């Protein structure tokens, strides 16, 4: 389905003011034309434009141009071609977002493509407003793209800062990291940036008031400890089943090594960031999504949610329990390394957990999962956990359907219902 639209344009020429109609079509976001742009099929895009099956001014259902789609898909050659053919980088979609705000998409494209697109947009002057906010840290209602990649892709921050890079490194933490979100960082890149700035200390960064922490849509994301714990736990590599959706490229032997290498930097970042933190701060309740949880409980519950989502139904409970336990031990090792008393930490966490709104306390009602996985995968709850002064002293105590039904069965055998005097059993 498509809809033909005309824009009435006026412009000044040598012969005076002129009026013209600019035709364009609003197409389905996944129509052939937009898919060709999305996947970098430049030859097919050229053919469609040549025969009139598409126009440079076409829009998708959200009002995005072909350039928006190319930026979102990270197709550098297509992006360059569209600009050379006359697509304007200043065009916005229905939400007022330019192609610059689509640069970091969802298709896992290379750092080279992203860096190339950023350079092009810089040369066109399309990132001036983003750069101003990057330096000021000012909070505005508009969504910006730079937080999606300056702490995730090596070299991008140097490109955007340009001649002002040294000035950027001297900015106070509040201005520099107000838009930082743990969900959008590469720990290796972020640690390298910390090392270049003498004024960035763990305590100074923890004092930053993040803009994303006040978002009513995703409370807790941003610079909160809950957001850090969630990212840490879900990034924990467990074994050969890790990231099964990427195993189709037949490189499963290397996937685990890549994830373990990446996780090393997450551990290094956590140890740096939590240095000198108080136990009361570490066990403080905070809202993450819809629940008031501590960082530890936030990490556990989100690790369970993620792992259940891609384990095979027959092995899910066992694999999930092993994965969560291992992530917990990594977390405890890192806390111990920064001087946290694990015995006292465990005592406080357990006392909080037993009266908290943590989703792990409930069976199914937590809505951690939906669809086919929900009944089979997460029909269990965390009853309690054992703790001690060493990470190996900690143990998660789960209650599954099987244990509950077995307990009810043996209780019925050992304690049969009392017979009412004068009553009888029906033959039925």
Computed CA radius of gyration, to the nearest angstrom: 27 Å
Instruction: Tally the helices.
Output: 19
- What global shape is seen? globular
The major β-sheet equals:
2 strands, antiparallel
How much helix, percentage-wise, in residues? 40-55%
Strand order of the largest sheet: 1-2
Uncertain runs: 240-255, 364-377
Number of structural domains: 2
Derived structural class: mainly alpha
Note the gap between the termini: 63 Å
Total strand count, please?
A: 6
Q: How large is the share of residues in beta strands?
A: 5-15%
Mean pLDDT, all residues: 80
Q: What is the element string, with H for helices and E for strands?
A: EEHHHHHHHHHHHHHHEEHHHHEEH
